[in-house]
Design a protein that fits this description.
With about 160 residues, this protein is mainly beta. The protein contains one helix and eleven strands.
């Protein structure tokens, strides 16, 4: 058993070397955190009379067609989850990595009340990585990596 563990550890340690940095590791950052508030500043992800996260549907535009997102092998197979950040509830959304010729991806959220919102993002796919660099929510720029902060913003509904 010790030999097996030593062999696995050796493989892990030598699999990423500085000789091949381009193929070493893949970094994927395709999510964003959204806080939904009403005009009075009340978080719409709190309480029972607000958005029901389990009823929100996520669609990704793939080759010009909207496809409902579901990956059963993931912890959050529907591509979203409710999380708490600094005492506030946010919706974490996994953005599409399917891009057009301008490296823009589109993700559609369909809420249980019938509302539909479109999130567009620029995805940098250089060096084997997939990193969101800008995010628009219903055509309004909400985040850019030039700000050097987490991809997080508030939407007033």
């Amino acid at each position: 058993m010790k030999k097996l563990l030593l062999a696995l550890l050796t493989i892990i340690l030598v699999s990423c070397t500085s000789d091949d940095p381009e193929n070493c590791c893949t970094y994927i950052s395709l999510g964003t955190d959204i806080k939904y508030e009403n005009s009075e500043g009340i978080n719409l992800l709190d309480g029972s009379n607000t958005y029901n996260v389990s009823e929100i549907k996520v669609f990704h535009r793939i080759d010009g067609e909207w496809e409902r997102y579901f990956e059963g092998n993931l912890d959050y197979p529907k591509g979203l989850r409710k999380i708490e950040i600094d005492g506030e509830n946010y919706l974490t959304v996994l953005l599409s990595n399917g891009v057009n010729e301008d490296n823009i991806s589109e993700t559609k959220l369909v809420f249980d009340n019938g509302e539909e919102d479109i999130i567009k993002s620029v995805v940098d796919k250089s060096s084997g990585n997939q990193i969101v660099t800008k995010i628009w929510y219903n055509e309004e720029l909400k985040w850019s990596n030039e700000e050097n902060v987490e991809p997080r913003f508030t939407i007033v509904k």
